[in-house]
Design goal:
The chain has about 450 residues and is α+β, with helices and mostly antiparallel strands. The chain has 2 domains: about 240 residues, Bira Bifunctional Protein, Domain 2 (BirA Bifunctional Protein, domain 2); about 90 residues, 3-Layer(aba) Sandwich (Rossmann fold), CATH 3.40.50.800. The strands form 3 sheets. It has an 8-stranded mixed sheet. Strands 13-12-14-15-16 form a 5-stranded mixed sheet, sandwiched between helices. It is elongated.
């Protein structure tokens, strides 16, 4: 879980008492706290995030995407003018120590566009994935923070429908890889709005349909100079619009690449508020999670041209890690991910530390997460208590008898049952318990 703002008992007294010194030497105690929308991720939460990213990385790599990282800070003019006025109000912008006008990364799409423009010898099409934090000064809520991690896949230099279709398939496969049994990929084409003569303000209003409903969208459309009847007619005409021809080709190609037809949903009101999208847009939702979309993306063929003077086609998708983690946790799909050692190796006395270290090394070589007790000369009961507090289910105990016979004793920390066997057998028993708790004959 995310770390809470708590003060450890040892810090509840003033630092002057801890540090000593005269009244004038005393330091002012600083309350340990985090900014709203900025979080610590304690071990279990961090382990879940790492597991999700590992599964997504495996998926993206299998489709031929390669890793990329970009700086947290960009020159402000690199980011500004790309997202739209409403979005740019949320950018963290300031002058650095050198007086440069800089801004924190708002997303990873614009920095990716800058990379494509800056490094012109990259292969085309260039497929990349990127897992990094971004910052937005917006109101916080469930699955919405001011600092959060995006997991992106993008392709630059591919203008055809196959790249769009591949992005749709990668998105769907990625969500299934991390535990979503039911996903729906909502798709649309932004050119649909151009055909109806909708302005940027109209598109922003339509993008709020799920939040404010039809009546709310009609009121916003009417506020742009229409009558309410005209606004409602526009919304209804949009809702009844057939998919543009290019989108038909995209969906056909996505089916050819393997996506299930039931996973695709054409939604003519899907808008995606950012201004840089030019054609295909998509969002992923799950019937099992009702707090909002799980990620989104689309084609942005003119964004890179802001840097190069000529358009370079590009398309991509972004997984919001915090929202995805929240959704999976609410569905109990992350219960198998725990930030605890598989086993704790305990030496009963420093003289046996050498054999304990060998046992621990063999266990790590077998793929186990192994902690070694750091105080071998403490009473065995105390060492076992420490192992239990670490969350391990088992301890491997090495005393004088085990060291001399080159064996080890496996102890179940819950039932206290234990038995002595060869090191390979003990390690195998631990691994069986991880996969099938309670089935081993070793306790």
């Amino acid at each position: 879980m995310v770390g809470k703002e708590t003060t450890p008992p040892e810090l509840q007294q003033g630092t002057a008492e801890l540090a000593g010194g005269s009244e004038t030497d005393r330091e002012i105690r600083i309350e340990p706290r985090t900014l709203k929308g900025f979080n610590d991720y304690l071990p279990e939460a961090a382990a879940r995030r790492e597991w999700i990213m590992a599964e997504l990385r495996r998926t993206f790599s299998s489709w031929g995407y390669v890793p990329l990282e970009t700086p947290a800070l960009e020159y402000a003019d690199v980011l500004l003018g790309r997202y739209g006025a409403e979005a740019e109000k949320l950018i963290y912008r300031f002058n650095d120590m050198g007086g440069r006008d800089v801004a924190l990364r708002y997303d990873q799409t614009v920095p990716f566009a800058r990379v494509i423009a800056q490094y012109r010898d990259l292969p085309r099409p260039f497929r990349r994935y990127q897992f990094q934090r971004v910052w937005r000064g917006e109101n916080t809520g469930r699955g919405r923070e001011r600092e959060f991690t995006q997991c992106d896949v993008d392709t630059a230099g591919a203008p055809g429908v196959v790249a769009d279709a591949e992005t749709i398939c990668v998105a769907a496969e990625g969500f299934r890889a991390i535990g979503f049994n039911r996903v729906k990929v909502l798709v649309n084409d932004r050119t649909l709005f151009d055909g109806l003569g909708l302005t940027k303000g109209d598109v922003i209003a339509i993008d709020k349909l799920a939040k404010i409903g039809e009546d709310g969208v009609v009121r916003e459309l009417a506020s742009h100079g229409r009558t309410e009847a005209s606004a409602r007619d526009i919304l209804h005409r949009l809702q009844a619009s057939p998919a543009p021809a290019r989108l038909h080709d995209v969906l056909s190609a996505a089916r050819d690449l393997g996506i299930a037809d039931d996973d695709l949903v054409y939604d003519p009101t899907l808008a995606r508020g950012l201004e840089y999208y030019t054609s295909t847009i998509l969002e992923v939702v799950s019937p099992d999670y009702t707090a909002g979309s799980l990620g989104g993306g689309g084609r942005y063929d003119r964004l890179i041209g802001r840097f190069t003077g000529r358009d370079i086609p590009a398309v991509g998708f972004s997984f919001g890690l915090e929202r995805v983690t929240d959704a999976l946790a609410s569905l109990a799909r992350l219960d198998h991910v725990r930030a605890v050692p598989d086993v704790v190796v305990i030496a009963f006395g420093s003289a046996n530390l050498g054999w304990a270290g060998k046992v621990a090394s063999d266990a790590r070589g077998a793929g186990l997460m192994v902690s070694v007790s750091t105080e071998p000369d403490r009473p065995m009961g105390k060492q076992l208590e420490t192992a239990s507090r670490l969350g391990a289910g088992h301890a491997i105990v090495v005393g004088e008898d085990e060291a001399s016979s080159k064996t080890a004793t496996l102890r179940n920390l819950s039932t206290r049952a234990q038995s002595t066997a060869s090191v390979p057998d003990v390690i195998a028993s631990v691994k069986r318990n991880i996969l099938h708790p309670g089935t081993t004959g070793q306790g």
